[in-house]
Design a protein that fits this description.
single chain; alpha+beta; nine-stranded mixed β-sheet; 9 strands; elongated
């Protein structure tokens, strides 16, 4: 079990002293120091630790959190891990040998398969992938290939780098996003947020010949915020 190293790692990650965490758990500082060193806490204390640090017992006991990438840790340590109005989603991703997040590439050819495989780690692992060192390490990025002329001046076939959004209520009106839905698959559009009022997004094209349309929140699978385009 990795409970001892995980406890110390999480305490430091959250900026807590041994005194502060021990007080929150209702135990002495010396007991906490023992738990961080080699002693396995009793089950009632493990439950308190899990609740206070907002980490499941299974992860706390079995996983080596120090080996997690920055993105995985941020996702794990979110104060509210539930999308507002949505169930918790697990994002399939890939990392390099040092545990750093890689950027998977979704081409036009695999867009149809992406809708069925976006949550399958094996499918995601088969996608081409690379790293861009100038992007934030605590964010998850993915590259999508633009299909069609609806988002001119970004042309058909261009590659766009996007950032994963776990809180859909933070979608900003007039900004560009890749929206993955059950009905339309992978779509690159300008979004207008109607989630709080109507549980919908209004999606518009930059090219005026395409008619805007709405998507229900329940139909949305993923949202990726546009960051930059690559030719």
């Amino acid at each position: 079990m990795t409970i001892n190293t995980n406890l110390k790692f999480l305490r430091k990650k959250k900026g807590l002293t041994q005194e502060a965490l021990a007080e929150a758990l209702g135990i002495s500082r010396s007991k906490l120091a023992g738990y961080e060193l080699s002693i396995t806490p009793p089950i009632e204390t493990l439950v308190k630790i899990s609740d206070y640090l907002r980490v499941s017992l299974d992860i706390l006991i079995k996983e080596d959190l120090a080996s997690y990438s920055e993105f995985k840790l941020r996702e794990l340590l979110e104060t509210d891990q539930f999308l507002r109005g949505r169930k918790l989603r697990i994002l399939a991703t890939t990392v390099d040998e040092q545990g750093r997040e890689l950027i998977e590439v979704v081409s036009q050819k695999v867009k149809a398969s992406y809708l069925a495989g976006f949550s399958d780690p094996e499918f995601i692992a088969e996608l081409p992938r690379f790293a861009l060192p100038f992007l934030p390490m605590d964010k998850k990025h993915r590259v999508f290939q633009v299909d069609g002329d609806s988002m001119l001046p970004i042309p058909d076939g261009a590659w766009i780098v996007c950032e994963y959004m776990d809180d859909w209520t933070a979608i900003k009106d007039g900004e560009r996003y890749v929206i993955v839905t059950e009905q339309d698959g992978v779509t690159f559009k300008i979004a207008y947020n109607r989630i709080k009022e109507e549980q919908k997004l209004l999606l518009c094209s930059a090219n005026p010949i395409y008619i805007p349309f709405e998507v229900e929140v329940d139909q949305i699978q993923e949202v990726w915020k546009y960051r930059l385009a690559m030719s």
